[in-house]
Amino acid sequence: MKVKPWTGIGQCFCSLLAAAVICISISHLRAYNLYSYFSSVSSNLSDEVGRRRELAITKV
Questions:
Q1: Given CA atoms 40, 46, 50, 55 in this order, what sign does their dihedral have?
Q2: Domain that holds residue 47
Q3: What CA–CA distance (Å, rounded) separates 12 from 21?
Q4: Which helix (H) or strand (E) holds 9?
Q5: Looking at the domain assignment, is residue 4 inside a domain?
Q6: What is the pLDDT of residues 24-56, one digit of tens each?
Q7: Whole-structure pTM over 0.90, yes or no?
Q8: In this model, does residue 3 exceed pLDDT 70?
Q9: In a domain, 38, yes or no
Q10: pLDDT tier at 21 (50, 70, 90 boundaries)?
């Protein structure tokens, strides 16, 4: 019985995929917290940019 060369690659890929899924599910909560933090920071930055733009327009 010959072992096909891609079966080892497939098993390795499947184990890597399983490990990635486990890591993603563990860090999903952390990633969501980071995402909400960054979105709040970016919204604050865009508000600040809008305020400065309004100030620049009113000065002109």
A1: positive
A2: 25-59
A3: 14
A4: helix 5-59
A5: no
A6: 777 776 767 777 888 888 888 888 888 888 887
A7: no
A8: no
A9: yes
A10: confident
Residues 6+ apart with CB under 8 A from 58: none
Tokens of 3: 């072992």
Comparing 59 with 38, the larger pLDDT belongs to 38
- Within a domain: residue 44? yes
Q: Tokens at residue 39, please?
A: 């979105």
Q: Residues in the chain, how many?
A: 60
Q: Report the distance separating Cα 18 and Cα 22, nearest Å.
A: 6
d(CA 26, CA 42): 26
- Residue 5 included in any domain: no
Cα Rg of the chain, angstroms: 24
How many domains does the chain fold into?
1
